[in-house]
Amino acid sequence: MIATWWAGLSLSMKILWGVTLTASLIFIIQSIATFIGADSDAIDSDVDFGGMDSDVPDAIDGGHGMNLLTFRNLVNFCLGFGWTAVLLKDQIRSQGLLMAVAVLVGIGLVALILYLFKWVSSMQQSGTINVYKSAVGCQGKVYLTIPGERKGEGKVQITIAGAVREYAALTDSDTLATGTPIKVIEVINASTLLVEELNSLII
After folding, report:
1. Closest to 192 (Cα-Cα) out of 173, 175, 167, 172
2. Mean pLDDT rounded to a whole number for the chain
3. How far apart are CA 4 and CA 105, in angstroms?
4. Which of the residues 114, 115, 180, 187 has an alpha carbon 20 to 30 A from that of 122?
5. For residue 100, what are the contacts with CB-CB under 8 A and spacing of at least 6?
6. At what angle do helices 11-36 and 71-88 cross, to 10 degrees?
7. Domains of the chain by range and CATH?
8. Are 171 and 195 in contact (CB under 8 A)?
9. Can you give the pTM of this predicted structure?
């Protein structure tokens, strides 16, 4: 049944279904890993598209840099784009219009998930943890690459008060890549930390 259905698809539809199903599978794995707190570096890492970095405008992200060019956001875009194109291909006959609608839905899904992550992060940071008292000395790892010499913000995940929390981060040292072990040396504000590579503290 499935083989017959697949054989009847055009090459373009096979590619579209392949992208859509792959993105859906990865999204499910990422979601499960996020909820159980698993280390998902292999499927949720910072991706450098030709060396370009991009920040969400201040009007969207409240003034804190947030890298758009990540594997997670690529998966979210493909998820929205693919399912929209697949489900509406019979309703929208114009291929150009269908692609435009699918792209808009993909972008909208990325924006929605970014907003939800930011909202959850703000709820966590406004909880019972006093970051000014608790964060200095905490260890963790870089989640999104941190540009060197305070030239931009990245993100880190640290263990604080027994829980894994995510914060924006700066560093005075060289660029810290995703996955680099770090230690918090100063709290800049309630949502931003100053960190340095953990290995650099070993003499």
Report:
1. 167
2. 79
3. 30
4. 180
5. none
6. 130
7. 2-125 (no CATH), 131-201 (2.40.50.140)
8. yes
9. 0.49
